[in-house]
Design a protein that fits this description.
13 helices; about 20% strand; Transcription Regulator spoIIAA; 19 strands; Rossmann fold; alpha/beta; 6-stranded parallel sheet; 4 domains; about 40% helix
């Protein structure tokens, strides 16, 4: 039934796309331009590419500057407070553009706007914003935009989760070397600090048929790296009417002919199995890098976070992965200063970091999110104390980073070249299979290709070498 409903929704939105295109042709003597900016995670960036796909279908071109745009959309993130502050700062600056171009349409969408209190704030304090919608109705953008353009009234849609995924939404990808490929949406974990399940809804997996079709097309189009996306890719397949899980899906994509590689994120440790680790070890196209967020090294705090694993279980899984996957590198997310966390418990996190030896960590000082359980927990540690702990952790990780990078000197790394290095041409940059940044001198015609690089020098954030 959901498949038939999804098809009806898609047909209806395609009809509205035609209406918007016709309307724009009447109103503009030039191709109208859209500026789309996505804040936050890779899933948001992928959603932004689908938004651009719909806008292109409606007749918009694209610009990097909101000053030149006829339509501006900010795809928002709600994970941390500073992400929300950045959005409101950017939206506030658009007042000047709106005064200069009264017909400009300004839209906000994404995780942040799925929250009722945020939508109300926009409604009261940012009257120049025309269109606000949440995460569950992105696929109805053509209909919402048409109604906004015709009525000249503000449109707000924070509808609840429809319970299924609408396939067939067009995509306007930002690059031609690496591609995001969503395999599921939503999250069922309800970690006490996290707003994602409240704004993204419950877990829904895409049918493997659609995923494999999209992956095959990406390979045919010349993409060299495909990153599978989901709030928790390890639980892929739950609720589908087929015998499938994430390990089986990885093997199916790995079997697609072509010279490309596969990454994925994000993994939840409680759902990371030995079967999955064995699959990574046995699939030649799956990269030997796993992002496995631990968040904290204290069992008491992990329980308060509702993470459903212990430090001991996590380390046992890490040990198994290191034995099975040659050259494995690990990255993680760490939260410092969770409500009630003591310095002694923070030190347990430091010990875990020293044992695992991550090549990179995405580190955050705890940020309370309205609507989560953790936001109501007592939080006696001061901001100054948390900042001190945070700096201590960064110092520990910096030493580990440098040691791991130094160990690569003298090795040969297969690198996917994706652009110009930080110091500019003729230096090129790319990432190795284990996700290390590699820079080297070379011709720009190598961009988009795999090359072998002999590593000759290491800094704590990248390595440098020469093409073999």
């Amino acid at each position: 039934m959901s498949s038939a409903k999804a098809q009806d929704i898609l047909v209806k939105q395609q009809e509205y796309s035609v209406k918007v295109r016709e309307l724009l042709m009447q109103r503009y003597t030039h191709m109208p331009l859209a500026h789309v900016h996505s804040f936050g995670c890779q899933q948001n960036i992928s959603d932004g590419e689908h938004i651009k796909g719909m806008l292109a279908q409606m007749g918009y071109g694209f610009t990097d500057s909101p000053d030149d745009a006829d339509f501006v959309l900010y795809n928002t993130c709600a994970v941390r407070e500073n992400a929300e502050d950045r959005v409101f700062g950017n939206v506030g600056n658009l007042v000047h553009c709106k005064r200069r171009k009264p017909d400009m349409v300004i839209a906000l969408c994404g995780c942040m706007t799925q929250q009722e209190h945020i939508a109300q704030k926009v409604k009261k304090s940012y009257p120049h914003v025309n269109l606000v919608f949440g995460t569950h109705v992105t696929h109805t953008l053509p209909e919402m935009l048409y109604k906004t353009l015709v009525s000249h009234k503000r449109t707000f849609d924070l509808s609840d989760d429809i319970g299924f995924i609408v396939e067939g939404i067009p995509v306007h990808r930002d690059g031609n070397i690496k591609a995001w490929l969503p395999i599921m949406q939503g999250c069922d974990n309800f970690c006490t600090y996290c707003i994602v399940p409240h704004v993204r809804g419950r877990e829904k997996s895409r049918s493997s048929r659609y995923i494999i079709e999209e992956a095959r097309q990406l390979v045919a189009d010349g993409y060299k790296e495909i990153t599978l996306l989901g709030q928790n890719v390890n639980s892929y397949g739950k609720g589908l009417d087929e015998d499938i899980n994430f390990s089986k899906l990885l093997r199916m994509i790995n079997d697609i002919p072509g010279d490309f590689r596969i990454r994925f994120m994000t993994s939840h440790p409680k759902d990371c199995t030995r079967e999955l680790i064995d699959t990574i070890a046995e699939c030649d196209k799956v990269c030997n890098n796993i992002h496995l967020p631990v968040q904290c090294g204290s069992n008491r705090v992990l329980k308060e976070m509702n993470r459903h694993y212990t430090v001991e279980a996590y380390l046992e899984l890490i040990d198994y992965a290191k034995k099975k996957i040659p050259g494995l590198t690990l990255t993680s997310d760490i939260i410092v200063g969770f409500p009630g966390e003591t310095y002694e418990e923070f030190c347990e996190t430091l010990e875990l970091i020293k044992k695992v030896r991550y090549t990179n960590m995405y580190t955050f000082i705890y940020s309370p999110r309205n609507g989560t359980r953790a936001a109501k927990m007592p939080d006696p540690a001061t901001a100054a104390e948390k900042s001190k702990w945070f700096r201590e952790m960064l110092d520990v990780q910096a030493v580990i980073n440098q040691e791991l990078m130094d160990s690569k000197v003298g090795t040969v790394q297969r690198v996917l070249v994706d652009g110009i290095g930080k110091t500019g041409a003729p230096r090129l940059a790319g990432r190795s299979d284990d996700n290390t940044i590699v820079e080297f001198d070379g011709s720009s015609d190598l961009i988009g290709k795999f090359v072998n690089v002999q590593i000759t020098k290491a800094l704590n954030w990248a390595v440098f070498g020469e093409i073999i």
